[in-house]
Amino acid sequence: MIARRKLLTLIGNIFMCVELIATISFIDYDRSSNDTIRVTVLLPNSSAYLSAIPRVAPAIELAIEKIKELKLNATNRRSWQIAYHDSNCSDIESPMVAVRAFIEEKTHLFLGH
């Protein structure tokens, strides 16, 4: 029951983050975006963790679909590109992946740890 509550809280937090990026998407900020909002998710890929990619990815996709339904994405003129990267729960590897994603993928929003 506690794990389910934590998962629902995590899903709620993800939805709030995606709502935030939908709000930010109204601002004309371009990093060579061609109207694409790029999100990088840095989480462990191992299902041993509650916040693993296999558990969180469906919630992120659901939140983005909800934003599209509610037309929160600047009248849906922008598309979404989600990139999932395995953080291995590493304080060393995660920041390196984040910097690489910021430079190479021109990421607008990071989710994860």
Provide the spatial order of strands within the biggest beta sheet: 2-1-3
- One letter per element, helices H and strands E, the order comes to HEHEHE
| Helix coverage percent | 40-55%
Strand segment tally: 3
Helix/strand structural class: alpha/beta
Figure out the total of helices: 3
- Gross morphology is flat
Rg for CA atoms: 14 Å
Oligomer: single chain
Q: How many independent structural domains? A: 1
Runs with pLDDT <50, length 5+? Answer: none
Percentage of residues in DSSP E strands: 15-25%
How far apart lie the N and C ends? Answer: 24 Å
- Give the biggest beta sheet: 3 strands, parallel
- Give the integer mean of the pLDDT values: 76
GO molecular function: peptide hormone binding; signaling receptor activity
Keywords: Membrane, Receptor, Transmembrane, Transmembrane helix
Protein name: Atrial natriuretic peptide receptor 3-like protein
Organism: Dinothrombium tinctorium
Architecture overview:
The chain has a three-stranded parallel beta sheet, with helices on both faces. Strand 1 (36-43), helix 2 and strand 2 (79-86) form a beta-alpha-beta unit. It is α/β, with parallel strands linked by helices. Helix content is 47%, strand content 18%. Helix 1 crosses helix 2. The two termini are 24 Å apart. The protein has one domain. The mean pLDDT is 76. The radius of gyration is 14 Å and the shape is flat. It comes from Dinothrombium tinctorium. One of its GO terms (molecular function) is signaling receptor activity. The chain crosses the membrane at residues 7-27. Keywords: Membrane, Receptor, Transmembrane, Transmembrane helix.
